[in-house]
Design goal:
Elements (H helix, E strand, L loop, with lengths): L10 H18 L5 H8 L5 H28 L4 H21 L5 H29 L5 H31 L1 H16 L32
Helix pairs in contact: 1-6, 1-7, 3-5, 4-5, 4-7, 6-7
């Protein structure tokens, strides 16, 4: 007896997963060798500097994300979540380009605090939107796509590619590539807007192209 498995994911979840996959992949290009970049190119930086920078990022992110998430939860509708998502995504675009200008320790600390706040806005809004749009009856599957595809596989791909590209082209090329990818995928988020506030398109197979409207068909 043949068992047919019909796996579908609604469009809003597809957009969110696609965005997360590329953002994490682009960031993972340089994260594994971030400490090497800092100690080699930032004047006076040591491994302790790297540790403090990551600590500043974590404190900034933690200080904002939970209060912001509570604020977003208390307001009806998803427009506020969307705007917070966009704000965080803008910071994600700026971050790799800004790393090109880092030359002093205080530059690094200020940038890590800035990106910590940006990631707080991005993830508070992302979790809220993702949770609201997950298909009923497919929660485990779609959250697993979030975990495996959006975080794990993307990190592995980015880290592997980043190591090779870093050897060939150097750190600055990695930051440029990461920034460009973040900028391109940022545009995908605007296609999420029509699906806000309870609008639910019919479930469709994962990652299929968006069908053209009759007016655009030739």
């Amino acid at each position: 007896m043949r068992i047919k498995i019909n796996i579908t994911v609604n469009r809003a979840v597809q957009i969110l997963l696609l965005y997360l996959f590329f953002v994490v992949t682009s960031t993972a290009l340089f994260v594994p060798i971030f400490a090497v970049f800092i100690t080699d190119f930032v004047v006076g930086a040591t491994l302790s500097t790297v540790g403090f920078a990551l600590g500043i990022y974590a404190v900034a992110k933690s200080a904002l994300q939970i209060p912001l998430a509570r604020f977003l939860d208390k307001h009806k509708g998803e427009r506020d979540d969307f705007y917070a998502l966009i704000a965080g995504a803008v910071v994600a675009v700026i971050y790799p380009f800004a790393l090109l200008a880092v030359s002093k320790i205080w530059h690094l600390y200020a940038l890590e605090a800035f990106v910590g706040l940006g990631d707080a806005a991005l993830m508070a809004a992302y979790y809220s939107l993702f949770a609201r749009h997950v298909d009923k009856g497919a929660e485990g599957f779609e959250w697993s796509l979030f975990s495996v595809g959006g975080l794990t596989i993307s990190s592995a791909i980015g880290g592997a590619i980043g190591g090779v590209l870093g050897d060939i082209f150097g750190f600055k090329a990695l930051f440029l590539i990461s920034g460009i990818v973040n900028l391109l995928v940022f545009c995908i988020l605007f296609s999420l807007y029509p699906h806000l506030d309870g609008a639910r398109p019919a479930a469709i197979p994962p990652f299929t192209p968006i069908p053209k409207s009759p007016a655009t068909k030739h």
